[in-house]
């Protein structure tokens, strides 16, 4: 059975600025893999809010990334550049979407693109549903496409629990995975 654990942590550099530090460590175990049972990834970056309104936000993020199992000829460390944009809309801003596009380079011919699209709806102050699509890979080869649907129970404005199901949507192994996440602001 494949298991993984990840963390997204973001903290403002100073309350009066539009800059924050973002850390995203990840670890996974795949006992069916012949080369790596455990592998990890981590990114440490600085995010800058370029536009922030009552209903929308656009940010850019730059950072360093590490991967424990780089492709042949690629380095373990590299640089990542990410663009993030999101907006709320509809009655009382209950509907929302978020788009993220990133490029990670760890060598001359080792650039990987990532694209995440999230759409959701706040059914109430305590319940939210989300649908997400994630892609990762080099253009023209080995692109992984994942889909995820989730239900989030917000216990307060700063805490919540997410339950969902994620599965590959491309030609890879389609075995669904259970997603459990804890949110804290």
Describe this structure in words.
The protein is an all-beta fold and 185 residues long. The protein has one domain (50-184). The protein is 0% helix and 67% strand. The chain has no helices and 13 strands. It has strands at 3-6, 9-12, 19-23, 26-29, 38-52, 56-67, 77-89, 95-105, 111-122, 127-138, 141-154, 159-168, 177-184. Strands 1, 2, 3, 4, 5, 6, 7, 8, 9, 10, 11, 12 and 13 form a 13-stranded antiparallel beta sheet that branches. It is globular and about 50 Å long. The model has no long low-confidence stretch (mean pLDDT 89).
Strand content: over 45%
- Residue share in helices? under 10%
Radius of gyration: 17 Å
What's the main sheet like?
A: 13 strands, antiparallel
Mean pLDDT: 89
Number of domains: 1
According to DSSP, the number of beta strands is 13
The helix count comes to: 0
Q: Could you give the order of the helices and strands? A: EEEEEEEEEEEEE
Low-confidence spans: none
Assembly category: single chain
Distance between the termini: 31 Å
* Principal-axes shape call: globular
- Global structural class: mainly beta
Would you spell out the secondary-structure blueprint of this structure?
Layout: E1 3-6, E2 9-12, E3 19-23, E4 26-29, E5 38-52, E6 56-67, E7 77-89, E8 95-105, E9 111-122, E10 127-138, E11 141-154, E12 159-168, E13 177-184
Antiparallel strand pairs: 1-4, 2-3, 3-5, 4-5, 5-6, 6-7, 7-8, 8-9, 9-10, 10-11, 11-12, 12-13
Feature tags:
globular; 13-stranded antiparallel sheet; mainly beta; 185 residues
């Amino acid at each position: 059975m494949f298991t993984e654990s990840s963390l997204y942590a973001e903290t403002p550099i100073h309350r009066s600025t539009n800059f924050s530090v973002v850390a995203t460590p990840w670890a996974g175990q795949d006992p069916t893999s012949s080369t790596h049972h455990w592998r990890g990834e981590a990114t440490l970056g600085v995010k800058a809010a370029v536009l922030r309104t009552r209903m929308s936000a656009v940010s850019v993020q730059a950072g360093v990334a590490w991967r424990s199992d780089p492709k042949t000829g690629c380095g373990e460390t590299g640089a990542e550049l990410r663009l993030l944009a999101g907006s709320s809309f509809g009655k009382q801003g209950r509907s929302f979407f978020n788009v993220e596009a990133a490029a990670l380079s760890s060598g001359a011919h080792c650039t990987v693109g990532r694209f995440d699209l999230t759409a959701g709806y706040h059914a109430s102050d305590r319940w939210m549903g989300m649908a997400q699509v994630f892609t990762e890979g080099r253009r023209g080869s080995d692109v992984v496409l994942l889909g995820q649907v989730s239900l989030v129970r917000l216990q307060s404005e700063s805490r919540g629990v997410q339950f969902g199901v994620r599965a590959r949507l491309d030609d890879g192994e389609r075995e669904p995975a259970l997603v459990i996440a804890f949110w804290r602001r």
